[in-house]
Structures are given as C-alpha cells and as structure tokens.
Design a protein that fits this description.
Layout lengths: L33 H8 L1 H17 L6 H6 L3 H31 L4 H32 L4 H31 L7 H9 L17 H30 L7 E3 H10 L1 H26 L17 H8 L1 H19 L1 H24 L5 H16 L7 H32 L18 E3 L15
Parallel strand pairs: 1-2
C-alpha cells in the first residue's frame, strides 16, 4: 500500500541512524521511518508485508463491520469533544500574544512583571485543566464507545502536551521580547505536525505524494478491521459469557488467558504500526514534515531502557524535555526516571479508564511496576543480546495476553453479573463475580486428547 523506492523520495537524506545517534540528537533532520527503509531495501520484508495484506483480504470475506460500528458509536459526541479541545488550544495563541504585548509595555516595572508572570502561568494551568477536565468529566458522566473515547482521550493528552511545549518554548521570548512570536499559521502547523517538541522551523520535503497518504490511510482502516476480527474471533468466544454463571472453572480462565496471548501480541503490533507508522507518516506526508523517525528498531533491542526510548520517540522526547531534564539535576536520575514512568503509566491508565468506563489498574502495575523492574534486570543486555531480546519478547507476549484477558474479564463481568448496591467504580467486579473454582482432583490435561 505504501511501498516506494528510495530514489522517488523527495528531499529525504540519511535514513538510518547509527547506534551512537539513536535517541540522543534532539534536532530534526530529514529521514524516513525504519519500516519505510526496510520496505524499500528488503524484498524479504516486502514479502512479509504482502503476506499480512493477503491474510487481511481473506479475513475481509468473513468479517463484519458490527464491531467497528459499535466501537466508534456516538461519533458525533466524540467529534464535539474533539472540537472543544481544538478550540482550547487555538484560544491559547491569542492568549500568549496578549501576554507578550502586555509584558512589553510593563517591562521596566519589576513588580508588575512578576505579577504578570504569575497571571500568565495561572492562565496556562487553567487552560490545561479545562482541556483535560471537561472531557474527563463528560466521559466519566456517560460512557462513550471504546473507539471514540480512545480517540478523544488520546487527542486530549496530545493537545495538552503540545500546549505545554509551546508555553515552555516561548516563555523567555515573551518575557524578553527579543525575538518575535511565531505566526498563527505556524502554530496551527505545529498542532497537527507529528511532533510534540516545538520549533520555529522543521525540515520539509518538496511536495506531497498523495498516493503515499492514501496508502497509509488505507493501512489505518485495514488495521481497524483486523483488530475487529481479533475481537470477534478470540475475545468474544471466550469472555462474552463471563459472569452469566455464578461460578467458572479455573482451568477455563487459564485457557482463556493463554488463548489471548497471540491475538494480544498481534493487536499490540498492529496498534504500533497503525499509530506510530501509518498515521504519523500520513500526516507527515500531508504536511511535508521531513523528520519521520517516530520510532526506532525497538524490536531488536535487548534492554528495556532502549525499548522505552525507541518505541515512541515522539512521547519520549516530550517526557525527556519537560519532566526528566528539569527534575534530574534536583531529584537525581533514579527518582526522575521513576517519576517519568509514573506520569506515563497514569496517563495510559486514564485513557483505558475513560475508554472502558471502569477502573482496573492492570496497565499501571505492568508498566509502572514490572516495567520499572525490567530496567535493571536487562541492564546487562549488551553481553547477551540474543538471550535478552528473547526475554523482552517473552515479557511482551505475556503482558499483552494478560491485558487482553483481564480487561475483557472485567468488561463482561460488569456487563453480565447481577447489579449490586456494593458495586464500586474503583473495585473490580471480576474479583467477586463469577467465583473462580477448582474442579475436584483438578489437574492439567493433555490438550490433544491422545489415547495410548
């Protein structure tokens, strides 16, 4: 869909960074995404891509659109929330120009300057709270469909981080008045550019290749249907009736968890490709945004510290610039790293809470606890790279399988179990309904049922 030869890529320079360059250079340069480079240079990777396309085409024969329609239900309400978020970040621009104009007038009065700085900081904080608070309140009051609420909450955090980045980048310029503020058109460009770090200039390509844009958007749509197939064929058969009976056998729960491991990892990889490759590259192409290193080759790493940096360079750069670097000189590297993990895990968990409509902090435990523990455990990955890369994939398989199964169990337990007065938003329903029991003389059974 989006395969293209390197010679046809306009104004794109070096595509592959060396190990010493990875994640350390904050500057923007023209470069392609790693998967784009692999598709262009390797017939083997192209063949694997074509296999997945053929599998999807075959699945489309037997896949319905009901899950997709249900997942993006009440799209008009989701669109209204998104437009509200967009209005807030657009209001921020005239607000910051007004702040800079007043600051220029009172620049010789120290007391007024300090007071005006406090008012400016308060204004930014209030806008951030309004941007996050209204969607959270609305989604908590009445649940929105899973797909629609996920889009709303992700956009909420994206706009919040962009507004913070602009405020930090322009605060000195506003206070000193040495350099003019960016134009409104450049501000709007930044709002939709695939980056969270504000710059006055970004490397640009010479033209928009609309065929590439359409190809990436088709990939986005295809992956949505692919995940719908995984939901219908793996989640619903195992968990849709969970909670309808008062008891469930432990063996059935364990088998369901193992059954979720493979579709969980496939969904994880599809989600990565959808957002960090197809979606970002589509917008980068439309906006002629030259730097497309949105991720690195995290799948080959042997250390979780490299995985977290390479998985999503866009978010990693924002966390590094706006949380880690300001805190590290004062709080130390270890505590600053923990705070970064904590903030990131809370944000991810809030997206899941608002999307599913219940509190079940599985991701916080996996990401904020076990994810942090994996940092020192895999610190010696350079000595045994193949072994530790195997360990990384084992952890990813198990972790995604648990996410798929535990959230599905909780979702259907709240849907199918009898409603009680003791039900609580913060207490998982699946812990008490249904009751998980062991068979008398329960033991592992031969799954192939072979008789000797």
């Amino acid at each position: 869909m989006s395969l293209r030869k390197t010679k046809n890529v306009p104004n794109i320079t070096e595509n592959v960074t060396s190990n010493n360059e990875k994640t350390k250079d904050p500057d923007f340069v023209c470069r392609e995404s790693p998967l784009t480079v692999l598709f262009e240079q390797s017939l083997h990777i192209q063949a694997i891509y074509h296999i997945f396309v053929v599998i999807l085409l075959i699945l489309l024969i037997n896949i319905g659109v009901s899950s997709v329609v249900y997942g993006f239900g009440d799209i008009s309400r989701g669109a209204k929330l998104w437009l509200f978020q967009l209005a807030i970040v657009l209001i921020f621009y005239p607000g910051i120009t007004f702040y800079a104009a007043v600051r220029k007038i009172i620049k010789n009065n120290t007391v007024l300057c300090k007071l005006w700085s406090i008012i400016g900081i308060t204004g930014v904080v209030l806008l951030e709270l309004l941007l996050i608070g209204v969607p959270v309140w609305d989604l908590a009051k009445e649940h929105l469909a899973l797909g629609s609420s996920t889009v709303v909450t992700c956009e909420m955090f994206r706009f919040a981080m962009k507004m913070c980045s602009v405020a930090v980048a322009l605060v000195e310029r506003c206070n000193q008045g040495i350099k003019p503020l960016p134009s409104f058109s450049h501000y709007v460009y930044f709002l939709f550019a695939p980056t969270l770090i504000y710059k006055d200039m970004y490397p640009r390509t010479k033209k928009v290749r609309w065929g590439v844009v359409v190809g990436h958007l088709l990939e986005v749509a295809a992956i949505i249907f692919y995940n719908s197939f995984l939901w219908e064929r793996f989640i619903l058969p195992y968990w849709s009736n969970y909670g309808k009976e008062p008891t469930v056998e432990a063996g059935y729960v364990v088998r369901g968890m193992f059954a979720c491991i493979l579709p969980g990892v496939i969904s994880f990889l599809c989600g990565f490709y959808l957002l960090l490759h197809a979606w970002h590259n589509a917008f980068a192409e439309m906006l002629t945004f030259g730097d497309r290193l949105f991720y690195e080759d995290w799948w080959t790493t042997s250390r979780f510290s490299n995985y977290y940096r390479a998985w999503n360079r866009i978010v990693h750069a924002w966390l590094r610039n706006h949380i880690y670097q300001p805190l590290a000189p004062r709080a130390g590297r270890a505590l600053s790293t923990f705070i970064v993990f904590f903030v990131s895990s809370i944000a991810h968990e809030l997206i899941l809470i608002l999307s599913f409509g219940f509190f079940y902090p599985v991701l916080v435990v996996e990401f904020g606890v076990f994810g942090v523990l994996m940092l020192p455990l895999t610190a010696s990955g350079r000595r045994f790279p193949r072994l530790y890369n195997l360990l990384m994939w084992l952890v990813l398989f198990i972790g995604n399988g648990l996410l798929w199964s535990l959230y599905a169990m909780e979702y259907f337990a709240r849907k199918n179990c009898p409603k009680l007065e003791t039900d609580n938003f913060f207490v998982p329903k699946s812990w008490s309904c249904p009751e998980v029991v062991l068979k008398p003389n329960w033991a592992f059974q031969n799954p192939f049922n072979i008789i000797y």
